[in-house]
């Protein structure tokens, strides 16, 4: 069990894979470079002012409409979509419509999540609802969701229809996960199994789609696409476990979010749920504090020490260590799923390297 002495921002997982930083950066940059022109063209289809609001969200312009080189995200999903096309023996360009469609759905969810969660910062900037208002955040999110399906269906192929079906199923699961996440905020207790189901829906489903959609567009059969989905689903659970750790112990200057952001939002994330499920004094103290917080309207006025106390209790009760170990377990399950897919060795290695990157990232 953790002693609670590790500093905030320390390594979030107990795995220490050797990461080829240059190789991972190149993979992510390729996904961003190939998908970006098509993504921008899709956003340009939106009616004003939604096109401008979306451009702000993606970091292409600032709040005054001036060109900006804002952080547009890690681009893990586009990278996976291009790699999945190559896993099916197609060129990476075949996966571009899938990469763009998945990125549009992902950003639809971010726009809505920021509003529902009351998040005022994303990627070191004010969120869309804070700058342009809740109505625009909702409308632009809806528009991005519609564009995602349009981008795939306008290909007019059998493979595009199969890919769209996988995207719509993943989108429905993503929405299910967000609904579960919100409902759990108002419950005193959530089981670890419920939390994993929620995170599998909210994060795993779309990553699973990202790493299968390119393969489907490239003509892969369902068995191949399903195996890639299994990799993506468990990669998503590893990704979310790390996110949950960063949501409590991440460094604000790196994550772009407020300190203790998930505790401020009363989220029943994996470290919290695992800590509450343990049997010990710290777990009981934490349960009492969170039960009182749930009935309080003053949590926004808490000082840093009050959130630090809750984080320390989560760590003392084993929630941080368990979540780190769960990220490693899900990573191993994801990598094992690749053994069932016949693909070029270089593509397999890149998928493994991306999985390694997910569990050691700091934002």
SSE diagram, text form:
Elements: H1 21-44, H2 50-57, H3 76-87, H4 96-117, E1 121-122, E2 125-126, H5 128-132, H6 134-153, H7 158-184, H8 192-217, H9 222-249, H10 252-255, H11 261-264, H12 270-277, H13 281-294, H14 304-316, H15 319-337, H16 345-360
Antiparallel strand pairs: 1-2
Helix pairs in contact: 1-3, 1-4, 1-16, 2-6, 3-4, 3-8, 3-16, 4-6, 4-7, 4-8, 7-8, 8-9, 9-15, 9-16, 12-14, 12-15, 13-14, 15-16
Describe the structure.
- The protein is an all-alpha fold and 363 residues long.
- It has one domain: Farnesyl Diphosphate Synthase (Orthogonal Bundle).
- It is 69% helix and 1% strand.
- It is built from 16 helices and two strands.
- It has a two-stranded antiparallel sheet with strand order 1-2.
- Helix 2 crosses helix 6, helix 9 packs antiparallel against helix 15 and helix 12 packs across helix 15.
The overall average pLDDT, rounded, is 91
Classify the fold: give the CATH topology.
Farnesyl Diphosphate Synthase
SS elements, strand count: 2
CATH class: Mainly Alpha
Terminal CA distance: 25 Å
Strand order of the largest sheet: 1-2
Largest sheet: 2 strands, antiparallel
InterPro entries: Isoprenoid_synthase_dom_sf, Polyprenyl_synt, Polyprenyl_synt_CS
Keywords: Magnesium, Metal-binding, Transferase
Protein name: Polyprenyl synthetase family protein
Family: Belongs to the FPP/GGPP synthase family.
